[in-house]
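re: that chain from earlier
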Amino acid sequence: MGNLDGKVAIVTGGGSGIGKGIAKALAGEGCNVVIAARDLDRLESAAQEIGDGTNVVAVQTDVSSEDSVKTLFAKTQTLFGQLDILVNNSGIVAGGEIGEIPTARWDSVMAVNVRGVFICTREAFKSMKEAGGGRIINIGSISANRPREESAPYTTSKHAVTGLTRSTALDGRPHGISCGQLNPGNTAVEWRSTGEQAVPGMELDNEPMIKVSDMAAAALYMATLPPEANVLEMTVMPIAQEYVGRG
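^ sequence. v structure.
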């Protein structure tokens, strides 16, 4: 018996990294999980890796698209008939010297990191309100309050997520809907080693890292709290990572 038997979760950005780790942790506690992202091949591979063929389902989704998100939530209802947990994990890391950042780069980050979180939250809120409760977990960043150089788009987007988290928690209170934010420090996700999303000014080769499983354990703790309890904000980071005034 798992702590989440009979529950249903959506995890965006669930095909790799922290999202995949969280999906695995939720499924390990008996939760049915719908993982969503744009890369269908990666999603399907992750679903096969962490599921039994029925409890983890891949749904290709662009969280910045209203129609795509609505399709994701409709498919979840069709497959499982409910939604108990939403993990807003999809995100883009992008930066550059602020005087040189193209508007298109700024817009692409905001579309996924802010607009996407809002659209998913709105659709989850509707479903959870009707059901009488639910839990939303937003993946933020310590960058929201302690930015790095040349990280204006990413830092601004994660600061916005903090505001959305608090507003959602407040608006959800009368309906039994909780919302909390999990802020990762340096985490050893795939793109750090492959250079898939190399960002000028954010090279982390020599910095301490924690494991994806550490972040997944934190998210699982938040997800398995009783309905009347909520972690509004949690930061998990390497002990040796610079944080306060890190510059």
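Residues 89 and 103 are 23 Å apart (CA to CA).
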